[in-house]
Every structure is written in C-alpha cells, then in structure tokens.
Design goal:
alpha+beta, BirA Bifunctional Protein, domain 2, 2 domains, nine-stranded mixed beta sheet, five-stranded mixed beta sheet, binds histidyl-adenosine monophosphate
C-alpha cells in the first residue's frame, strides 16, 4: 500500500525561511509605521463565537466563514476579520478605555474564498483603528498612515491611490432619488464594476429601483470631482457629507498627501457595518485587487449589544501588497545574512563556541548574529558555509598570524584579510 505525501491545504502558504524573511519585512514596516503614528498594538483570539459575525459583517464574509461546532457544542468561527473582535474588546472595557484611542493589530485571518490571485484562505492583515471620535481627522490620520507606509515600502505617489467615498453621501442620494431600502441596495452597488452594466441594472431592478433611478445612480457613482457631485445633490445632509470629504482632502493636502487620495464614489464596500466615509487602496490602474479597505462604523458596538461608540479603521492584507511590491522590485533579498562566522583551522570547537559567544554579546545595540560550524570540517567547507549564510566577516580563532587577544579575519564583502582585536573587527562591520 502506498502512503500519499501530505499536501498543503488549498489557499494556504508555507513560509520557508526565505519567505518568512520577506513576511517579517512587511510586518516590521507595518508595525514601525503604526507606532510612528502612536497606535498601540493589541491581539485577540483566532476563533470567536459564530454569532459575532452572522448578521453584522455582511453576507459575503458570512458565506466565507470557517465555522464548526466545538466539543462543548458551541458554534465557533475562525476569525475572517478583526473588526468584530475589536468591537467586542471595546464593549468589554467601554468605561475604562480613555477615548479616543488608536490601536493596531496584525492578525492571521481565515476566509473560505474561491482561490484566485490576491485572495487566499489564510492571510495576514494589518488593522489600524481609531475608537471614540466622530471627527473626520481620524480618517485623515489613518490615510496619512497608509500613504506613509506605502511610501516607506518604496512606492511612489501615483503608483497607489486611496479612493474615498461616503456611505452617508450615498444614503442621502438614495433618499433624494426615492430609492428603497439602502441595506438591500449597497451589496449591489458594491458589485457594480465587477458585474457589468446589464447585471447591475437587473440586480437594482430586483431590489425595486426604476430604470430612471438606476441611471441616476450610475451617473452619480461615476462622478470624479466634488464639484460634479455638488451639482447633483441638494439636501442639507448631502451637503454636510460632501463638506466632510472636502475637509478631509484639504487636511491631507496640507500634510503633503494630496496626490495620494481621490474621490471615488464607485467604492461602497461589502461589509454591512460601515456608516460614513469608506475607502479602498488600489495600485495605479486598478490592475490588482484592493491593497486595503476600510471605513467608519459608528454603530457596530451598538449592534453587538453595547453602547454606541464610534470607530473608523482599515485592513491591509499581506497578499496583494507583496504582489505589488514584487512587481515594482521593492522586496528585500530573501537571502540569509549574518554578521560573523567563526572558523577554526584545527576544529577547536571549544574555542569556536567561546569566541562566538563573545561576539554575540559584543554589541551595545541589537545582538550580532554569529554562525559557526557544528562539526569538524576542512576550512574550505567552513568558508562555503560562511558564504551560504551570508556572513559579512569570517573570524579565525586559531590563525597563525594573530597575537594574544587578536584574530585573523576576512571581510567577505571585499575578500581582504586583516589581523586585529575584537573592537577592530566590530568596527569593520
Ligand atoms: P476587507 O475589505 O474585507 O475589510 O479586507 C481588507 C483587505 O484585506 C483587502 O483589501 C485585502 O487586502 C485583504 N484581504 C481580504 N480578504 C483577503 C483574502 N481572502 N486573501 C488575501 N487578502 C485579503 C475588512 O476586513 C475590514 N474589517 C477592515 C476594517 C478595519 N474596517 C475597519 N477597520
């Protein structure tokens, strides 16, 4: 009987060290940018009670849940997104938490997606959220952080764009044209560009809209400037919603991010809980899936049974981001690199271990990375290993030219040989 080799589950990834190095580069850049904007990190469990998602997150995400009954007969779901967990954390400590506050997290998420480019069944997502303020400057802060982060990854303005829309504005427009139940209409609007004009018109007709209303909506969602929208809306609420977007853009422009944002009323977002500004980040030309998406959710805590606490935030996945950075050749080399390789002509392993330990603790900052042979071997083989591990300097513990407390050493970047003490070697690095 032949035994089949275990297979990687569809839509998941293995991270061999080379892939993990790239992954850590993404995580480090996410974390350092979030911290530079003074967001604090939090975490939650990887699974939650199923009901945290059903009815609140929106149809699409609920249909993609990985859920099961645990041994205590509880309905459980692996988390498909972080926002409901965050809302739960906020509700639990609603009184104690000093608002507003800014938090970030980098959860591993699970969605039973159809396998396609940019979408996996297990992925990571940076979440940044601001809780406890309705101010539009919270949106400004989040968008400034996104632009800063993408620039830090090496993307130029113009290579990405944050498209901004407003559910408040859409809702007032739906009201103005007398469209029925927005809750039924949003999921259709969200699919507008994906399904094409005919299917779009049909789905809206099914939701109860007349031909004239469909045309008006289509025109409205194609508006490219605030002035164009101004000419179409009249109510006080719509004017207020537009004013908010104008303030947001003016603030971002003043801070040097004007080129990174644009009005895009075709953005609706699939999730059910958004109430105000919604936004998505795309590569230039929108050739890939969204890099990030988010928006304002002022009544999610209330929907989950808590008091009403406003929130706004976004999620940025690692998959599309890495694809985009790879396309622009912006990912770092995945090769290993160590500071020192400690070698011995006589295979004096005691001396090798002792010297390696001394070099590890010689740094006043981040500890040096130090490699060495793990078995007796010829010098040629040791140098091969040093090369393979990307050692910058090879230190010989028993070179004949070295005096007391000195070493012979080789700078692998230039091929030059030297003799010197530890301070000189560290200096050379
Ligand atoms: P979302 O639009 O569902 O929003 O996801 C945000 C981002 O996560 C997407 O733009 C994409 O980069 C990434 N993403 C989503 N699904 C997948 C997948 N199957 N594979 C790879 N990447 C994926 C949310 O999740 C909201 N909870 C974000 C949020 C935070 N809103 C407010 N705060």
């Amino acid at each position: 009987m032949s035994i089949s080799i275990p297979q990687l589950p569809k839509g998941t990834r293995d991270f061999y060290p080379e892939a993990e190095r790239i992954q850590n580069y993404i995580f480090d850049t996410w974390r350092s940018t979030a911290e530079s904007f003074a967001y604090e990190e939090y975490e939650g469990p990887m699974f939650e009670h199923l009901e945290l998602y059903t009815g609140k997150s929106g149809e699409e995400i609920v249909s993609q849940l990985y859920n099961f009954k645990d041994k205590g007969d509880r309905e459980i779901a692996l988390r498909p997104e972080m926002t409901p967990t965050l809302a739960r954390l906020v509700i639990q400590k609603a009184r104690e938490l000093k608002k507003p506050f800014k938090w970030f997290s980098m959860p591993r998420l699970f969605r039973y997606e159809k396998a396609q480019k940019g979408r996996l069944r297990e992925f990571f997502q940076l979440n940044m959220d601001i809780i406890g303020t309705e101010s539009i400057y919270a949106e400004a802060d989040l968008m400034a952080a996104i632009a800063t982060m993408l620039r830090k990854f090496g993307l130029k303005d113009g290579e990405f764009a944050i498209g901004v829309s407003s559910r408040k504005l859409l809702a007032t427009y739906l009201e103005e044209i007398g469209a029925p139940n927005p809750a039924l209409v949003y999921p259709v609007l969200d699919r507008r560009l994906k399904i094409g004009p005919e299917a779009f018109a049909k789905a809206l007709a099914d939701a109860g809209l007349s031909e004239d209303q469909v045309k008006k909506l289509d025109d409205f969602m194609s508006c490219k400037s605030i002035d164009e929208v101004k000419a179409k809306v009249h109510s006080e609420n719509a004017t207020a919603a537009l004013q908010e977007i104008e303030d947001l853009f003016a603030t971002l422009t003043a801070a040097g991010y004007g080129e990174c944002v644009n009005l895009d009323l075709s953005i609706v977002r699939g999730l059910a809980y958004y109430t105000g500004i919604v936004f998505e980040v795309f590569d230039k030309g929108k050739s890939m899936r969204a890099i990030a998406g988010g928006g304002r959710y002022d009544s999610l805590t209330e929907k989950l049974g808590g008091e009403r606490i406003p929130g706004v935030g976004f999620g940025m996945g690692d998959v599309v981001l890495a694809d985009l950075l790879a396309e622009h050749k912006l990912l770092p080399s995945p090769k290993q690199s160590v500071d020192f390789y400690i070698a011995s002509f006589t295979n004096d392993m005691k001396k090798v271990f002792e010297t390696a330990q001394a070099f590890r603790s010689a740094s006043t900052g981040k500890p040096f990375s130090v490699a060495h042979p793990l078995a007796a071997m010829k010098m040629g083989k040791q140098l091969d290993q040093a090369n393979y591990q990307g050692a910058k300097i090879v230190v010989y513990v028993d070179g004949s030219k070295a005096g007391a407390s000195e070493f012979e050493y080789k700078d692998m970047r230039t091929g030059e040989m030297f003799v010197g003490n530890m301070d000189a070697i560290v200096e050379r690095l």
